[in-house]
Amino acid sequence: MDQGFKPKKQTHPRETANVLSLITFFYSFDLFKKGFKKELEDDDIYEVLSGCRSKELGDQLEEQWHLDKKKNKRPSMVRVLWACFGKTYMLFGAMQLIMRTIFVVAVPEALGKLVSYFSPGQTDLTKEDAYFYAAAVVGLGIVNFVYTQNYLIALTEFGIKIRTAVCSFIYRKALKMTEASLSDITMGKIVTLITKDIFAIEMVVHFGNDIWIGLVQTAIICGLIYGKIGVAAFAGVGFFLIVLPLQIFIARMSTSYRLKTSKKTDERIQLTQETLSSIKTIKMYSWENFFNKKISSSRKKEVNSIFKLFCLKIIIIVIGGLSAKIGFYVLIMTYVWLGNYITAEIVYFIQSCFGKLRHLLSILFPIGLTFGAELSATFIRLRSILEAEEVPTPRNHLAVAIKGPAVILDKVSVKIKGVELIKNLTMTIQKGLNIVVGSVGTGKSTFLKTILEDYKTDGNLTIYGKLSYASQEPWLFPSTIKHNILFGEKLDQERYKRVLEVCALNYDLNLLSDGDGTLVGDNGVNLSKGQQARVNLARAVYKNADIYLLDDCLAALDGHVCDYIFKECILEFLKDKLCVLVTNNHDHIQAADRIIEIKTATATYEENKNRVVFELPKSKEVVKSDEIEKVEKEPPRTNLYKEAKKSGKVDYGPTLKVR
């Protein structure tokens, strides 16, 4: 949640570093020096690199997704990622291929010549040649070391960019999903996908180029070995190729296990979130043991699935390692069996080449297959979210100047999972107090969310004016009470004070030591239900809109407070607006200008002919003279998520004496 606070951090030194500093990573020296002297804190960390910021990366991916959606009936995340990052990734691959080929060809040749110099009776190489080949081996080693470290850093940064872009895109998609989609896709699945599954994409970035480069290198190495020892090379390499299909088969098995494991993880996270959100009720009824057993059972099932998955990964790697050792033995024995004489130069040459081949076929390929299987499972899970139904973009929102605030529904229908919740509804809701009534479960909240366009609708829905909405269940975010009410709107001191008064919040704020600067916990955990409902209502009312949709937001209030807010806020403060209020309070219904009665899949809209002027009994008056401390400035902007570190000691003396 945006707290309105953006900490100022130092510009990352890499942005201004020279070539030598980039190659040697000397630009990070100051940070290591600072960490050596004291413990690093949040303020010591540099600003994010300009090329790694989530907004720009998310915008790029989202734009490409919409382009792919226009070109293809079914958009593909693989195509989108390739269009955004494919060229850069292939550039990395081409650079790696060139450097790897140089090292693969040059190092064994130089090492073989250097070793052959020490063979008894050789006269082909002089001492100067030996020095040259020794310098070549050392120089190539240094160049390989410097290049590898810089390549890995660049590739890691590239992988972070892709992961950041995908996570940003998933987050944006989650905000646009309809109620029906969210009922099928749990928040646990979205959390697991962002925090766990997406890492498969990043890991494939690390190994993807190595796979196809490895195939090219394998062909080159096989050619070098064949040129050195002849047909015996086919024996060792052939053994690798025989084992490879088995590894591919096991990798495909791990894909299905990965999907099962992810599903178990989703269930466990969803259960944990639901338990934590109701922890007060659980503790009040002493249900801790029951929920502890449920979460533990869910975790055990998840761990069992993870164990099976890792067993398959280990089998792939073990098969690769064994095949490398057996393949080298088969190659040497075949070469001897064909009647050839082994020299030191041949042994070192084959060992150097085969070492590269063994790394490719016994490590990179198995790991690549494993992560490829995980990537396949990730894209399957990702597709279910990206193809989920989205809330339609607002349409036909016209200025109030054309016509007074109004909501026009013309043959509007709403279907969710094949069930028709609203059928051919036609009505024009006009300015004034419109109260929505109906039995429990008839669809009063669905009616309001239809106007909000949270559901995909058939028919014509035209809205004249801006909308503001207060939900039935209060929604608060971790910040001050003032930030919760303003919700990004500019501070209008007079309107703000008036909203606090009509929502009966002055008395409560006077009881709090920090007033409206009091920090609200997650979901308003440190406020009562009534306080949460009034802050939630105040946020909707503070917004200067033309149409106010209030979904039974007075139900959690005491009777006298409810009547006071109805008179002062609904009838007085919003008297010149179009207000749609869901309630079953008989006294409030009598004061409505018009009544909307919701029935199963339909509704009626009529004038309230028996309208009664609502009066607040003297016994139910709420003190209005209480005022909060005057604040003429914007609320202070603070970083609520910064951890305050404190140090101290615990005195164990009293505890030890008791024992």
Structure, described:
Helices cover 59% and strands 10% of the residues. By secondary structure, the protein is α/β, with parallel strands linked by helices. The protein folds into 3 domains: 7-47, no CATH class; 48-387, ABC transporter transmembrane region fold (Up-down Bundle), CATH 1.20.1560; 406-607, P-loop containing nucleotide triphosphate hydrolases (Rossmann fold). A hairpin with a 2-residue loop joins β11 (594-599) and β12 (602-607). α5 (127-176) runs antiparallel to α8 and α7 (187-197) runs antiparallel to α9. The chain is elongated, with a radius of gyration of 34 Å.
Summarize the structure.
With 659 residues, the chain is of the alpha/beta class. The protein contains 20 helices and twelve strands.
Write the layout of secondary structure elements.
Blueprint: H1 19-24, H2 29-37, H3 54-71, H4 77-117, H5 127-176, H6 179-184, H7 187-197, H8 199-229, H9 233-277, H10 279-284, H11 288-337, H12 344-386, E1 397-398, E2 406-416, E3 419-429, E4 432-437, H13 444-451, E5 457-464, E6 467-470, E7 479-480, H14 481-486, H15 493-502, H16 506-511, E8 519-520, H17 529-542, E9 547-551, H18 559-573, E10 578-582, H19 586-590, E11 594-599, E12 602-607, H20 653-658
Parallel strand pairs: 1-5, 4-10, 4-11, 6-9, 9-10
Antiparallel strand pairs: 2-3, 2-5, 7-8, 11-12
Helix pairs in contact: 3-4, 3-5, 4-5, 4-8, 4-12, 5-8, 7-9, 8-12, 9-11, 9-12, 11-12
